Amino acid sequence: MPFSFSIQHPFSRGFIEINSTDPFVQPVVDLRTASNPVDLDLFVEALKFGRKVVKTPAIQVLGPTELQPGNDKVTDNELREYVRGSIRTMFHPVGTSGMMPKTLGGVVDSKLRVHGVSNLRVVDASIIPLIPASHLQSTVYAIAEKASDLIKEDQY
């Protein structure tokens, strides 16, 4: 019986850095997944909750077997080490182009214009400060709709 656990609002923060002036060189991307210990604690609690669910009579009639992390992993530390070695991202990164003043590390202003560049806006998930508790697609559509209004405002 497969279970999949995810944290909708992780506390860990990664980064992207340009490491070359060559535009064809990939940037350095470090997601820093589970770098904040709170995220590991949340996963440990999720695993323990999943085990409780599996022990209910309704699930037991299905004859579930735990393959990972395995019945031999019972302490919080053992579960934490399992999580640390197996955690994966759901690849919904956000927040790489902060909407704030450039002096604070921002990339775009409130009209989505890139600081210090003419006629360039960022209209994607990178301006979202926190991961929404949903798929990103509808949120990005909303950003695009707002961007079209901002662009039209600047034209008239």
What does this protein look like?
- The protein has a two-stranded antiparallel ribbon with strand order 1-2.
- The radius of gyration is 21 Å and the shape is elongated.
- The protein has two domains: 15-86, no CATH class; 102-155, no CATH class.
- It has helices spanning 37-54, 57-60, 76-86, 136-155, and strands at 15-17, 28-30.
- The chain starts with 14 loop residues before the first strand and ends with a helix.
- With 156 residues, the chain is mainly alpha-helical.
- Helix 1 (37-54) crosses helix 3.
Characterize the quaternary organization of these chains: single chain
Q: Which residues form runs of ≥5 with pLDDT under 50? A: none
Helix count from the secondary structure assignment:
4
Domain count: 2
Mean pLDDT over all positions: 90
**How much beta, percentage-wise?**
under 5%
Decide which structural class fits the backbone.
Answer: mainly alpha
From the N-terminal CA to the C-terminal CA, the straight-line distance is: 58 Å
| Number of DSSP-assigned strands | 2
Q: Which word captures the global form?
A: elongated
As laid out across the biggest beta sheet, the strand order is 1-2
Q: Which H/E pattern describes the elements?
A: EEHHHH
Radius of gyration using CA atoms only? 21 Å
Q: Helix amount, in percent?
A: 25-40%
Largest sheet: 2 strands, antiparallel
